[in-house]
Amino acid sequence: VISDLTPNGLAFSPDGKILYVGQSLPEQPVIFAYTMLPDGKPGKRKLFYDASALSKQKLPGLPDGMKTDVAGNLFTSGPGGILVISPSGKLLGRIEIMQPTANCAWGDDGSTLYITANMLLCRIRTKSKGANW
């Protein structure tokens, strides 16, 4: 359905109105946000977050697995670990793993984030809860 980029990782906003799509190209590590149309197809796209500056710092990893929390924040693998990005596209912080990070998922009561990175399986309790986990 999306043919003009190399997607690798996707998530929906808690209300299902926005589709986030990560691109794991080293020369263009970005996340796009698509407005979902009533027919269930992605509509207009905008650049949501550009991870190029973090990649240029030689932090390992690229956008890949992602999930949202109940507040609409995006938790996504990226340079240096898990990036936490607000619904407006602002980087709120990073869970530093310092290894290429592949995926994340909510578990337990929804406030535990499980992370896969290289040969690691990590678990971190958060103050947030996963959306639709």
Textual characterization of the structure:
This protein is mainly beta and 133 residues long. It has one helix spanning 52-56; strands at residues 7-12, 18-25, 28-36, 42-50, 66-68, 74-78, 81-85, 91-96, 101-107, 112-117, 120-125. A four-stranded antiparallel β-sheet has the order 1-2-3-4. It has a four-stranded antiparallel β-sheet with strand order 5-6-7-8, with no helix packed on it. Strands 9-10-11 form a three-stranded antiparallel β-sheet, with no helix packed on it. A hairpin with a 4-residue loop joins strand 9 and strand 10 (112-117). The two termini are 25 Å apart.
How many strands, which pairing sense, and closed or not: the largest β-sheet? 4 strands, antiparallel
Distance between the termini: 25 Å
Which percent bin holds the helix content?
Answer: under 10%
Stretches where pLDDT falls below 50 for ≥5 residues? none
Could you give the count of β-strands? 11
Treating each run of at least 4 consecutive H or I residues as one helix, how many helices? 1
Strand percentage: over 45%
**Helix/strand order:** EEEEHEEEEEEE
C-alpha geometry: globular
Question: Taking strands numbered 1, 2, ... along the chain, how are they ordered across the largest sheet?
Answer: 1-2-3-4
Question: Structural class of the helix and strand makeup?
Answer: mainly beta
The mean pLDDT is 94
Give the C-alpha Rg: 14 Å
